[in-house]
Specification:
With 257 residues, the protein is mostly helical. Helix content is 61%, strand content 0%.
Length: 257
């Protein structure tokens, strides 16, 4: 999933930091917040105007690519190849298939440069192409259905075990806070790195893809919805469930250490 050990450690550190930041901000403070996320009735359409548009750097790079500059192509691949491989692995799991889809994506990117209008960031545009190629591959191999139709195996389960709360919604077993061990210190331990990486790989494909894009690649909510072609509410639920499982895995590691 990672192109180098340094990239792996850096990505896992960002992910662990995000899990702790969310906990410290009180986003999982009550049973109501954690369990009602499964019952969202609101189905607001995405606001495409809020999606980040291409930056001047993006536009300059695209102009160089269209002019046929070889150095621009090398820069593009160096900048995004690792991101694409991580996303492909999140969607497909099998590394050989993921690498084929990434190569296919690069071909589509080069052939489709003329269609890039700058209405999203270059990274978002490229990731959307990869997602579409991955969907096509999955459908062709008859192993799955389009991403937006994926149903998690635990879609009817609450994000956090209800036994961890009192009836009035207060925590009976609150999340373990990493007060003594920051995520950076925690991830210096080989076992903790392996724990988080394994937990990420064991997430359902839809949750793994959303968490990877949000917490590893740094895309915002609207960009993730654009890349994966899902609703804002669906993205929120998938992200919450994925983060909850990862946080629980780290809690159990810390408690059992």
């Amino acid at each position: 999933m990672w192109t180098s050990l340094q990239e792996r450690n850096s990505a896992l550190s960002r992910l662990a930091r995000r899990l702790q930041d969310e906990l410290n901000m009180g986003k999982t403070a009550s049973a109501i917040q954690l369990t009602r996320v499964n019952g969202f009735q609101h189905r607001a359409a995405r606001d495409h105007d809020s999606i980040a548009r291409a930056s001047p750097i993006d536009l300059s790079l695209v102009a160089r690519l269209r002019a046929g500059e070889e150095s621009a192509l090398l820069e593009l691949v160096r900048r995004y190849h690792g991101d694409l491989l991580r996303l492909a692995l999140a969607l497909l799991s099998n590394r050989a298939t993921a690498e084929e889809v990434v190569q296919d994506t690069w071909t589509c990117v080069i052939e489709g440069l003329a269609s890039f209008e700058g209405r999203s960031s270059l990274k978002t545009w490229i990731c959307r192409i990869l997602t579409n190629r991955a969907k096509t591959r999955l459908i062709r191999e008859m192993r799955s259905v389009p991403f937006s139709a994926l149903r998690d195996s635990d879609s009817d389960e609450p994000a956090v075990d209800p036994v961890r709360f009192f009836l009035d919604g207060r925590w009976a077993e609150p999340p373990h806070r990493w007060t003594a061990d920051t995520p950076e210190k925690l991830l210096m331990q080989k076992e903790a790195m392996e724990c988080l990486e394994q937990a990420l790989q064991e997430l359902p494909a839809s949750q793994r893809a959303v968490v990877t894009l949000r917490d590893v690649e740094g895309l915002d909510s609207d960009e993730v919805c654009n890349v994966l072609d899902i609703r804002v509410t669906n993205q929120r639920v998938l992200l919450h469930r994925g983060r909850s499982k990862l946080r629980r895995a780290l809690e159990e590691h810390v408690i059992g250490a």
